[in-house]
Design goal:
- This protein has 476 residues and is α+β, with helices and mostly antiparallel strands.
- The protein has ten helices and 16 strands.
- The strands form four sheets. Strands 1, 2, 3, 5, 6, 7, 9 and 10 form an eight-stranded mixed beta sheet that branches. A four-stranded antiparallel beta sheet has the order 4-8-12-11, with no helix packed on it.
- A hairpin with a 4-residue loop joins β6 and β7.
- The longest helix has 33 residues.
- The radius of gyration is 44 Å and the shape is rod-shaped.
- The two termini are 77 Å apart.
- The N terminus is likely disordered.
- Its main location: membrane.
- This is pH-sensitive chloride channel 2.
Length: 476
Amino acid sequence: MTMYLPNAPLDCPSLEKGDIYTQSEFLSRLANECRYDRLLLPTYKTGEVVYVHASAYVYFIQPAEAHDLNFKLHFLLQLRWTDARLAYSLYSPERQKIIGESDLRQRIWVPHLYMSNEQSSSLMGTDSKDVLISIAPDGEVLFSRRMQAVLYCWMNLQKFPFDDQRCSMNLESWKYNASILRLMWEKDNPVRLSSELHLTEYSLLDYWTNESVVRGDIVNMRQGGGRSGNYSALKFTFKLGREVGYYLMDYFIPSMMIVAMSWVTFWLQADASAPRITLGTSTMLSFITLASSQAKTLPKVSYIKASEIWFLGCIGFIFSALVEFAFVNTIWRRKKVVSLKKVNSKYILKSTLTPRLARKELQKEMQSSPQLSKSRSCSSLQQDASSDPNGPGYNNYLTVHSFPSALNLPTITTQSYDDLSGRGRPGSEGSDEPKHTWTQMTPQEIATWIDKRSRVLFPLLFILFNIIYWTFVYCL
């Protein structure tokens, strides 16, 4: 009795006593066009869903340079589904499996999947491509192919080079939507990694899989089916942590040393213009060269990266050292001695930063203004010299007070030496008025004083900057 598959024409080759045929002969009968259409889904009933189970074995992961925003992946992709039209257990009970390569793929239906984030891909192999298909007696098909692919990975580089990146391989159905074909990961170990897998610039922190559906329509031209709907998709995601050892040795530690070199100028004399300028500019150029070599490996993005914050901080310290030299060198070249109320930062900086032009303009303004010239005639200055027991002009002093808000000009009053010393007046004994002693410093002493303070201030500020920076990159 001859057996035929349902709806098979009478002239189709018989499958009876299939064990007597070779594998090629039996397959040519089983997948003959009279009973098998490779363009149709492996279902007899309309509306049934074909489930395709996927798994992957990863041989090699190579993240590319950051400016390329991609990575290379070598992997073995396996797809498993059931095609009842290829079940042959009734016709060839002694046959275990039908195994073939590319020629077998051309005879049967194979799901068309594509990688949505693919830049380029190809099948691996030498003389023939590494494709293997096996058909079990119950019609279960296992399709394996070894591939290499370059996939896009949209990296977030805000914390570069202390960043973690998540890259993925996205598999989607190309022709059939989710109501007809459903992609699923294998339940047990859907993705396995080779024991010989090693990364250089990154370390593999974690990986996971998930299933989803994506919306396809004619406007976006996402799928090839040309119809709107939800298409089944699979995603394999792995988390990579960038190794910072290379950047510490080649960028951060050298930049710290360059910044520290710029502080050597604080130990040179303020009038040593040639060595201080040479040292300051050479450290500036050295650091810019070091930073530019690292920036070439990064894409030009609009946001600020952690490496750029470090660059701005270090360049700010080097530039501040140059500005400090210009400041103390200008003070060093002054001629007049400076009178200070106290020897501290407030009064020294106030005396050095007060512009001379403002004082000259004030004198001209006082001479040209009649109101100001009138205010200079004080009664104590008009007293008879004979009333002064110590001679004319002995105990008359001018005191300059703060500027009035209306005229922005000083108010000038007079005090005698006895008033200042607390003697010669009734009730002057036991006076609680404060006594101020003024100190004089030469410009050279002031410049040296500033340099000494800079030797301590700059390193402390740089240490504070490092504390804030490394807290940001590791704790936030």
